[in-house]
Amino acid sequence: MIRGVVNAAYEPVISLTVRGPSGQSVEIEAVVDTGFNGFLTLPSESVVGLGLLRSARVSTILADGSAAMLGVYPTTVLWDGHPRHVHAYMSDGVPLVGMQLLDRHRLFIEVEDGGRVLIQAGG
């Protein structure tokens, strides 16, 4: 089970460990974003610090309706204690966890400042 908390801005936040291709890792605080259908976004400093290599560029529509070209970077996330290979989009701002990373999991959020965020494998 992955645990997090709802912050004062009413964002559900979890901690994740992200690993680069040479084994280096970084701990990030990521907002769970059910409106994002990808796996994960990472800011440029995390992408560079992990030594991630871009595999593609994709056109996407952001939450504000604007279009953007984002780099796609294969990486590994420690997800519920297990390494999981995912594609991260480089996008400045806070890291986001999207619906593909939540696939086959249950998400529970107590919507209040300091509320619990729980993610558990579906069954």
Biggest sheet record = 6 strands, mixed, barrel
The rounded Rg comes to 14 Å
Helix content: under 10%
Compute the number of strand runs.
10
Query: Count the helices. How many?
Result: 2
* Side-by-side strand order of the widest sheet: 2-3-8-4-7-6
Instruction: Report how far the terminal alpha carbons are from each other.
Output: 13 Å
Cα shape: globular
- In N-to-C order, the SSE pattern is EEEEHEEEEHEE
What class would the helix/strand composition place it in? mainly beta
The low-pLDDT segments are: none
- How much is the average pLDDT? 95
Beta fraction: over 45%
Summarize the structure.
With 123 residues, this protein is mostly beta strands. The protein contains two helices and ten strands. It is globular, with a radius of gyration of 14 Å.
